[in-house]
Amino acid sequence: MSRHRFLKNNVDDDYDDNEDDYNEDFDEEVYVVYDTLIDKITDLTLEEVDEVLLDFNYNVDDTINYFLEDAGITEKPVLKTSKPQPQIQTKQNNSSNSSNNGKPQQKPQQQKTKASFPSTLAIDLCQRDKSNSNNNIISNKEFTFQSLYSSSNNNNNNEGVDKITPFDFNTPSPDDLILEKQKQAFKPKSSSSSKDDKTKSNNKPIQQQKNNNNNIESKTPYNTPTGGTPISESILKEENVNINTKTTTTTTVKQHSESRRRDLEEMVHKSFSSTDNKPHLNMVVIGHVDAGKSTTMGHLLFKLGQVDKRTMDKYEHEANRMGKSSFHFAWVLDEHDEERERGVTMDVCVRYFETPHRSITILDAPGHRDFIPNMISGTTQADVAILLINASEFEAGFSTEGQTREHALLAKSLGIMQLIIAINKMDMIDFSEERYNYIVETLKHFLSTAKFSESSLRFIPISGYTGENLVDKKEPKMSWFKGQTLIQYIDSFSVGERLINKPFRMNVNDIYKSTSKGLISVGGKIEAGLVGTGDRILIAPGNEMCVIKQVRRNHMESEWGVGGDNVDLTLQIENTTAIRVGSILCDPEKPIPMCKKFQAQIVTFVLATPIICGSQVVFHAHSMEEPATITKLLSILDQGGQVSKKNPRCISDTTTALVEIQLQRLSCLELYSSFRQLGRFTLREAGKTVAAGIITEFLEHKNNSKTTKTTTSSSK
């Protein structure tokens, strides 16, 4: 049914002019514009007129001006307001051609049936007293349903009728206000928010027309239902609802107040200045599968008193019962049944211990190639690393099929600068100095090509199972080694800069279930910023707000956490499904950008096939992974970073290049120049790491922002 027609029959009607029969698809304004312009614009169609009229809110003058400007016609034709003639093509015989002189023939009247008589509503409307209608409005170039209401307002006989003020559809409806208040009732008071206002500039300009006789703005939407009685203003006043006077203010949600930040900074300064304070380091343990990572770290924790003898005896008894007598130290870290049955670490395990001068968080990463993504996730949280080497099977781990090379390259690509290389299982080669020296020289050459500084590398022979050279030296056969013990090397790691003054950023690596409704615990590393209990933080992606109820750092409850800390946070959140591994917690005032396409500088590793435009890869950054496509090869760079070749057809092994990468979804990323750790990434293909890189420029991104809108109403 067209917007302005009330009398419509599918077969025919009782009116001689057949106005509604010849074409039911167009309104009267369409024919007025068409008849006015057809002499000037001969190729004009009714469909075009109808579409443009819709854009201009059925304003005839604006529509005519639009077509004239588009056709370059300056002379405005006389407006033809006569009733439209049928524009359909009919079959004509010889007699009709001669009698009508080529004019279209009117549709012949059909025999009237019961179904063709007007409805009761049509008869009532036709029999209305003409004195009660406003002919000026009916004949106006814009007929709207508002005219049905306004006709009685100008009649002197209806002075007692309330004047109807049209609803302002640009403001929230009463239902919207109620729903918003209900939604805010279930959120923390400080984190109440609403959706961002959509800008009007995204919509097509719609001209608001004013009726000269009534001064009423026409804002009736096209889908306004016919019939019904408009609500009077008096009823609105009785319900204390006023939709015409509203004031909306928008404020940005803050993580914490300025006074609270000063208090947190004072607590941090006091803690760091204390003589009892030990700088914190996150240390990842990497290496080929079966290199003895879990056994070495479990034995080290036992020697440091982090595991009591009773627990260790229990692990030893259970390991003997399962036929895995040598695995009892590994079970200190491998707690899952599947890990113990298979004898391999599958996920990153986190433990804590202290040296005389350092507070250490151990991240025991899996070594099996099937769990490389988990190894990457653990390494992104680390500041330093220990690379364990199996002295008895060094060649197997160091080959192209082993994980020693890939783990070392990934560590360097993900920002690890300090590395301890522990040559393990020396007891299985009878503590051979010659074998040890061969392994050291081979690894030194490889690590130097991987851009590790020689001064940041420390080599040490150990036996994780017997405990030799972990905390002390007892083996006479290894008296040839004059260096320090493993715990002394760990204690000598230098501590990097803590990015306290940058906006808060924390990547989520673990999620723990909570028995309390609305609470969830997450673990991860704070990359930058300062956070405390009671802070309001933003979850990205998802744009969900939450409140920090508890902070645990160094395995102890604390009131704050800073950049560099590996912490567990208990969050109060309305929708617990909004957070997942790979999410970023950030400052709502300065949120992390969401990016889908960017320019990057990459360095390729050993490739089975060259990288070409359109290559499909898996993108790994901080704790997230996402399918990606290399959409453009920009240039190949030389060792000095200068362009040596533009628009290459492919990128081969060990090559530095500039490329464009597109992800499947918007993801939380930073430029390398802003946040180094969040601007690094690796690319994997077919289960192997093919490249590592840094993000240099965003091509498609948006900034999250979290605001609260407060709407107040006042009645006059």
TrEMBL record:
Spans through the membrane: none
Record's compositionally biased regions (Low complexity): 93-112, 202-216
Bias (Acidic residues) ranges: 12-23
Biased composition (Polar residues): 82-92, 217-232
Region (Disordered): 1-23, 77-116, 156-175, 184-232
All residue ranges annotated as the Tr-type G domain in the record: 278-500
Any Pfam family matching the protein: GTP_EFTU
Chemical reaction(s) catalysed: GTP + H2O = GDP + phosphate + H(+)
Subcellular location: Cytoplasm
SUPFAM superfamilies in UniProt: EF-Tu/eEF-1alpha/eIF2-gamma C-terminal domain, P-loop containing nucleoside triphosphate hydrolases, Translation proteins
GO BP of this protein: translation
Record keywords: Cytoplasm, GTP-binding, Hydrolase, Nucleotide-binding, Protein biosynthesis
GO MF entries: GTP binding; GTPase activity
Record-linked Gene3D superfamilies: P-loop containing nucleotide triphosphate hydrolases, Translation factors
InterPro entries linked to this entry: GTP-eEF1A_C (IPR054696), P-loop_NTPase (IPR027417), T_Tr_GTP-bd_dom (IPR000795), TRAFAC_GTPase_members (IPR050100), Transl_B-barrel_sf (IPR009000), Transl_elong_EF1A/Init_IF2_C (IPR009001)
Cellular component, GO annotation: cytoplasm
Family note: Belongs to the TRAFAC class translation factor GTPase superfamily. Classic translation factor GTPase family. EF-Tu/EF-1A subfamily.
Protein name: Hsp70 subfamily B suppressor 1
Species of provenance: Tieghemostelium lacteum (Slime mold)
